[in-house]
């Protein structure tokens, strides 16, 4: 006769523990739609587009918003599909993401870190956003990225060019498709060497915030490596308006190059005023004086008008590229809005599609599954050639464009800024890559992915 | 030495803008007793009058050129200014290039109207209210005005170049004993300085040598007594508000080639201009002008690399430091009158 050791209480206990044990991996598994912030429960998933709709970068922000709306249309099967047709991944078919239609809400960053954080927080808490995308400032990007990390949502950065965004301030939940200051300098240096030689004295005017500092550091390092001397670096307040008191000392400084580490309205004003002071017509040390603007945008080029003629700079992407992805995006955007997209619009559009694709590949909206899907992800067909989202810092690596300001080629006033920038070099990705432990990006760590909730 | 000369020129140039704005602020404060925080917005509206003139002169009709295509491959639509049919293509281009100086004819009536509308529509209701209320309401008005401009013209700076004959630079050094190319200065900034000097002189002449000006000055000194003489001083003060708005508008329009007009440029000047008024002495017109130029030149000097090497960041605070020192030593400012804001 056998004796059973099972008791009713023991069976219940064992069952409860086993059940809980079996449930635990399911709870943590990516495809489970609970256990992370704003897990979508209905038939819609909501994106948060956090862009400057007022303030100094509002035009750029509105262009980002146009592109984001277009991306949502394409994800939901409206329109011609744009870059979905050329993207190397074919997981998105115009039926939304994982069977859910994509909706969106917008926030206004005003290009102020505190306002941008408040807008992002509201979109996450009140609107249930699963992902935040956009922005036009590195200070804002770093602030919102930190918030998204803490909240447990993915941040797909917009126009942020400071090394710090994926350097010392990198976060596991944050991803940057846009290039950075190091890459601009690495792409520009060979072109500048060819155009202006190796014996030059450069004077830097630098916007006094995170982007300006890293841009100046990167440009100084790249140009000094090819033999240039950095004679002076003068920090200028953001939004100074009149830069004459900073430009006047350049005249007799002995420098024969002026590097304007300025962006937006500051760049428009400082470049215009430098030209008014006759710097472009000046001969110094037996050489023609030259001006360099490391980071260009179409909207800045529009503001600066003919002053950008002959001035080199760099861009993440340009509508004049001739690859199939670019053509598809320019066609979609151009037919909807009547003018070409800016590179700020492009990066936000691509980021939205990349996020959607990562969710589709992961089979989940869980941020940690998305992070896993995006890390070391290689893709093509999005306008920048073969591109890598590096896993160790969440920075995209791709070809970088060197641009030169030229006279308008169309003579059409509406195209100023779009056709006054000419692509002079498509710098290959290998030339702008850097080691994971590069000193300019040191001091930060991704940390662990945070699913929130 | 050449660096010092350049910074003096920069200071005179910046000081011109400060002085013109501060002059208008002082006129309004001296006549109506109103602390007008919307005065920077009037400067900004003036700058956008220059942009508007440029757009008016550039009004175009569309011509389709079947031989060329646009970025989408459609037949190219080009814009041809209406002026071209009257003056020819070159004539139209030349006229458009002169849009900033020509905008003066637009600025004066527009700003007189804006000033009159502001004063009659809003500010007159706050004459007897505390200065804090006036500051709040005019600051709110400034934000409304700048948002209207942003909605109409966008957020990006809009380039408004000087006419070609004034757009280059001049080698001033050769005229004053320096070697060639040592003191090169933009021509338009010299024009701006000269223009400011003329406007300031005209305002002073108007107040000093006309009967209207004499009554206004009397009203500024003792409003009640002038009123008791049967003079409708309120009407004259309303006109002075319009005049102050026109001065700010002219300052803004002619400043457009120096700093590309943007919707928040008024705010950038507002705080500095108030410091100028306080340093010059509340209610003192000569004080406002003197302080404008003085602080502009000081700011220029403080921006010199040699100065910043000793005192980093001094260029950002020099104006406020000077304001503190002057207010500690001369509480009424450089040329302030007794009894102004002292009750």
Question: How would you describe this structure to a colleague?
Answer:
Chain A: This is Amino acid/amide ABC transporter substrate-binding protein, HAAT family. Chain A: It comes from Loktanella salsilacus. The complex is a heterodimer of chains A (453) and B (343). Helices cover 38% and strands 18% of the residues of chain A. Chain A has 453 residues and is of the alpha/beta class. Chain A folds into two domains: 44-179 and 319-398, Rossmann fold (3-Layer(aba) Sandwich); 182-315 and 418-431, 3-Layer(aba) Sandwich (Rossmann fold), CATH 3.40.50. In chain A, strands 7-6-8-11-12-16-17 form a seven-stranded mixed beta sheet, sandwiched between helices. A five-stranded parallel beta sheet of chain A has the order 2-1-3-4-5, with helices on both faces. Chain A has a three-stranded antiparallel beta sheet with strand order 13-14-15. In chain A, β3, α4 and β4 (154-157) form a beta-alpha-beta unit. Chain B has 343 residues and is mostly helical. In chain B, the strands form two sheets. In chain B, strands 1-2 form a two-stranded antiparallel ribbon. A two-stranded antiparallel ribbon of chain B has the order 3-4. In chain B, α1 (2-32) crosses α11 (265-280), α8 (211-221) crosses α10 (233-255) and α12 (285-302) packs antiparallel against α14 (314-329). Chain B is globular, with a radius of gyration of 22 Å. Chain B has one domain (2-51, 111-329). Chain B has 14 helices and four strands. The chains are: A alpha/beta (453), B mainly alpha (343). The interface between A and B is large, with 48 and 53 residues.
What descriptors fit this protein?
heterodimer, A: 453 residues, Rossmann fold, globular, B: mainly alpha, two-stranded antiparallel sheet, two-stranded antiparallel ribbon, transport (chain B), amino-acid transport (chain B), transmembrane helix (chain B), membrane (chain B), transmembrane (chain B)
């Amino acid at each position: 006769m056998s004796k059973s050791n099972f008791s009713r209480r023991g069976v219940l206990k064992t069952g409860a523990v086993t059940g809980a044990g079996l449930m635990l991996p399911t709870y943590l598994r990516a495809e489970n739609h609970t256990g992370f912030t704003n897990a979508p429960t209905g038939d819609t998933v909501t994106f948060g587009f956090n862009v400057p709709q007022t303030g100094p970068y509002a035009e750029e922000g509105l262009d980002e918003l146009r592109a984001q709306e277009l991306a949502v249309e394409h994800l939901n099967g409206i329109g011609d599909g744009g870059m979905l047709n050329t993207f190397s991944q074919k997981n998105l078919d115009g039926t939304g993401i994982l069977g859910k239609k994509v909706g969106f809400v917008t926030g206004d960053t005003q290009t102020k870190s505190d306002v941008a954080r408040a807008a992002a927080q509201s979109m996450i808490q009140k609107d249930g956003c699963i992902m935040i995308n956009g922005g036009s400032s590195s200070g804002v990007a770093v602030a919102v990225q930190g918030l998204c990390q803490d909240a447990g949502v993915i941040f797909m950065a917009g126009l942020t060019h400071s090394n710090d965004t994926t350097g010392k301030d990198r976060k596991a939940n944050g991803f940057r498709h846009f290039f950075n200051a190091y890459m601009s300098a690495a792409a520009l240096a060979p072109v500048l060497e060819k155009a202006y030689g190796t014996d030059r004295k450069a004077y830097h005017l630098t916007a006094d915030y995170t982007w300006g500092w890293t841009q100046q550091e990167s440009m100084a390092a790249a140009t000094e490596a090819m033999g240039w001397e950095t004679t002076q670096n003068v920090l200028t307040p953001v939004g100074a308006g009149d830069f004459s008191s900073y430009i006047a000392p350049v005249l007799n400084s002995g420098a024969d190059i002026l590097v304007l580490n300025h962006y937006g309205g500051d760049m428009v004003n400082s470049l215009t005023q430098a030209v008014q002071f006759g710097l472009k017509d000046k001969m110094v040390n037996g050489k023609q004086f030259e001006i360099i603007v490391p980071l260009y945008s179409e909207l800045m080029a529009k503001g600066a008008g003919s002053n950008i003629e002959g001035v080199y700079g760099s861009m993440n992407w340009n509508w004049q590229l001739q690859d199939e992805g670019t053509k598809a995006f320019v066609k979609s955007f151009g037919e909807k809005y009547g003018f070409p997209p800016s590179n700020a619009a492009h990066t936000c559009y691509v980021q939205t599609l990349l996020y959607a694709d990562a969710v589709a590949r992961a089979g989940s909206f869980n941020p940690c599954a998305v992070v896993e899907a995006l890390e070391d992800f290689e893709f093509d067909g999005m306008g920048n050639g073969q591109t890598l989202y590096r896993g160790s810092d969440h920075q995209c690596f791709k070809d970088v464009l060197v641009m030169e300001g030229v006279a308008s080629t169309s003579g059409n006033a509406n195209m100023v800024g779009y056709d006054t920038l000419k692509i002079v070099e498509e710098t290959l990705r290998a030339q702008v890559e850097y080691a994971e432990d590069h000193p300019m990006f040191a001091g930060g760590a991704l940390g662990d992915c945070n699913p929130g909730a | 030495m050449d660096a010092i000369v350049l910074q003096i020129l920069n200071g005179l140039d910046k000081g011109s803008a400060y002085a013109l704005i501060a002059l208008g602020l002082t006129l309004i404060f001296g006549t109506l007793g109103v602390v007008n925080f919307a005065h920077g917005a009037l400067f900004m509206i003036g700058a956008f009058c220059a942009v508007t003139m440029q757009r008016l002169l550039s009004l175009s009709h569309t011509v389709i050129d079947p031989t060329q295509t646009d970025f989408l491959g459609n037949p190219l639509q080009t814009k041809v200014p209406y002026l071209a049919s009257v003056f020819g293509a070159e004539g139209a281009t030349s006229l458009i290039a002169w849009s900033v100086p020509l905008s003066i004819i637009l600025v004066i009536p527009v700003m007189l109207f804006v000033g009159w509308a502001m004063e009659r529509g809003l500010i007159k209701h706050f004459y007897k209210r505390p200065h804090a209320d006036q500051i709040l309401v005019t600051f709110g008005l400034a934000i409304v005005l700048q948002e209207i401009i942003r909605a109409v013209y966008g957020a990006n700076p809009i380039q408004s170049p000087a006419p070609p004959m004034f757009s280059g630079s001049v080698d001033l050094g050769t005229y004053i004993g320096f070697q060639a190319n040592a003191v090169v200065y933009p021509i338009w900034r010299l024009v701006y300085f000269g223009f400011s000097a003329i406007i300031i002189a005209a305002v002073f002449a108007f107040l000093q040598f006309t009967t209207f000006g004499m009554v206004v000055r009397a009203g500024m000194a003792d409003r009640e007594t002038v009123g008791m003489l049967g003079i409708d001083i309120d009407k004259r003060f309303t006109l002075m508000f319009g005049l102050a708005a026109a001065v700010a508008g002219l300052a803004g329009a002619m400043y457009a080639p120096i700093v590309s007009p943007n919707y928040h440029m008024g705010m950038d000047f507002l705080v500095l201009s108030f410091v100028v008024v306080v340093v010059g002495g509340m209610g003192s017109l000569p004080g406002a002008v003197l302080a404008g130029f003085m602080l502009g030149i000081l700011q220029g000097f403080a921006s010199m690399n040699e100065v910043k090497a000793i005192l980093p960041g001094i260029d950002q605070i020099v104006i406020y430091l000077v304001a503190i020192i002057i207010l500690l030593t001369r509480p009424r400012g450089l040329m302030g009158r007794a009894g102004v804001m002292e009750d």
